[in-house]
Design brief:
Layout (H helix, E strand, L loop, with lengths): L8 E4 L7 E4 L2 E4 L2 E2 L18 H6 L5 E5 L1 H5 L2 H11 L3 E5 L4 H10 L7 E2 L27 E4 L12 E4 L18 H8 L6
Parallel strand pairs: 1-6, 1-7, 5-6
Antiparallel strand pairs: 2-3, 3-4, 8-9
């Protein structure tokens, strides 16, 4: 946050369409607290506490606040007011139990240089930049891939998958900056062969 010269950000890993919701600051996977969903046994990133305010508080010197579901239900204006109240704190976990919550969150994030959130928050952001929705993806260039999957028990019915957008040169993966992943790591994480 210092590098971006920002004094405040939000955090919400909510993805309601995939049954990942944040309620009263707690992260749920389907109807189960995340730390009871099997993810507490994840070999790389075990989650033993579903309270995101507590989890984030252990990782920062800033105070972590909460924008709860009652604020979210009142709309973007109320969310923005709560953000102003919490600015001195530095960070806030945001409840989101539905896509409607994310749509109310989006306008309140306008101008915020740093947002920490699950990918579903993007449904509410294009309006902040005057972007019109399109069904056409831009053409892929260079080495590209989409990696999907989750190791939690509640999500075990979904097989991890690697979908190539463009033919990949596996030997080139080591030279891509910020890409620290290997087939060995993936196979260990999911404890099964990784489908190609």
């Amino acid at each position: 946050m210092r590098a971006l010269s920002t004094d405040f950000t939000i955090a919400t890993p909510a993805f309601p369409d995939n049954k990942r919701r944040v309620f009263k600051g707690y992260l749920f996977a389907d109807e189960t607290l995340l730390n009871e969903s099997g993810i507490q046994n994840h070999p790389l990133t075990p989650m033993t506490d579903a309270n995101l305010v507590r989890v984030l508080q252990t990782q920062t010197q800033r105070v972590v606040g909460l924008i709860d579901y009652t604020v979210m239900a009142r709309g973007a204006g109320t969310v923005q007011e709560r953000i102003q109240e919490l600015k001195a704190a530095g960070m806030a976990v945001v409840d989101a139990i539905s896509n409607n919550d994310l749509m109310r969150l989006g306008p309140a994030l306008k101008g915020m240089p740093h947002v920490t959130a699950g990918s579903s928050v993007v449904i509410s952001l294009p309006q902040n930049f005057g972007i019109v929705q399109s069904s056409v993806l831009p053409k892929a260039a260079d080495l590209q891939a989409v990696v999907c999957g989750m190791a939690a028990q509640w999500h075990s019915s979904h097989t991890p998958a690697l979908i190539c957008i463009k033919p990949m040169n596996w030997s080139g993966l080591g030279s891509i900056p910020h890409l620290n992943i290997s087939m060995r790591t993936i196979n260990h994480t999911y404890r099964q062969p990784f489908p190609l």
